[in-house]
Amino acid sequence: MSHSKVESVFSWPVRVYFQDTDVGGVAYHGSYVNFLERARTEWLRERCGYSNIGLIREFGLIFVVRSLRLDFFRPALLDDLLDVRVQLKDVGRSRVGLHQAVWRNQDMLVEAEIHLVCVTADQFKPVSIPETLRQQWKNERIT
Q1: Domains of the chain (ranges, CATH numbers)
Q2: pTM for this prediction
Q3: Nearest-5° angle of CA 46, CA 6, CA 9?
Q4: Cα 37 vs. chain centroid, distance in angstroms?
Q5: What is the C-alpha separation between 104 and 122, in angstroms, rounded?
Q6: What residues contact 53, with CB distance under 8 A and at least 6 apart?
Q7: Which residues form the Thioesterase domain (predicted)?
Q8: Which residues make beta-bridge pairs with 84?
């Protein structure tokens, strides 16, 4: 990855399927956690070059959710095409703070603040984030 700055907001499209909704075609509140996870996984893959299994194989670590705050503004509906966004906010020794949002066209449906912790894959003990990831994240404009 180059040392130039990259766009600070990563975007991933997600379609609302029948399995994500209730009988009225409204997305379950828990479905948004899955939508956010998909976008974070693809952000890690695209921006950092690592899949979750790649992190385990190369470093013996995973990122787990430490805290998650969701604010719901409008419902997603069956067959909506959503834009799920990820923005890096801050990085600590073993912690990563992210801002995420779910959009439908010009409407923000859900806003989320997420804190991840880097832990060993075998015992779930907190460890330092690998330097290679830190260097890549320095290229993300944190706002």
Answers
A1: 9-137 (3.10.129.10)
A2: 0.90
A3: 70
A4: 5
A5: 38
A6: none
A7: 24-110
A8: 12, 102
Residue 40: beta bridge partners?
none
Active-site annotation holder among 20, 22, 79, 80: 22
> What's phi and psi for 134, nearest 5 deg?
-55, -45
- What radius of gyration, in Å, describes the C-alpha atoms of the chain? 16
Tell me how far CA of residue 13 lies from CA of 35, 55, 56, 71, 84, in angstroms: 9, 24, 26, 20, 6
As a whole number of angstroms, the distance between CA 139 and CA 143 comes to: 12
The string of pLDDT tens digits covering residues 85-129 is 999 999 999 999 999 999 999 999 999 999 999 999 999 999 999
Give yes or no: 79 in active site.
Answer: no
Question: pLDDT for 48-58, tens place per residue?
Answer: 899 999 999 99
Cα atoms in the Cβ-side hemisphere of radius 13 Å centred on 129:
20
- Whether 1 has a pLDDT exceeding 90, the answer reads no
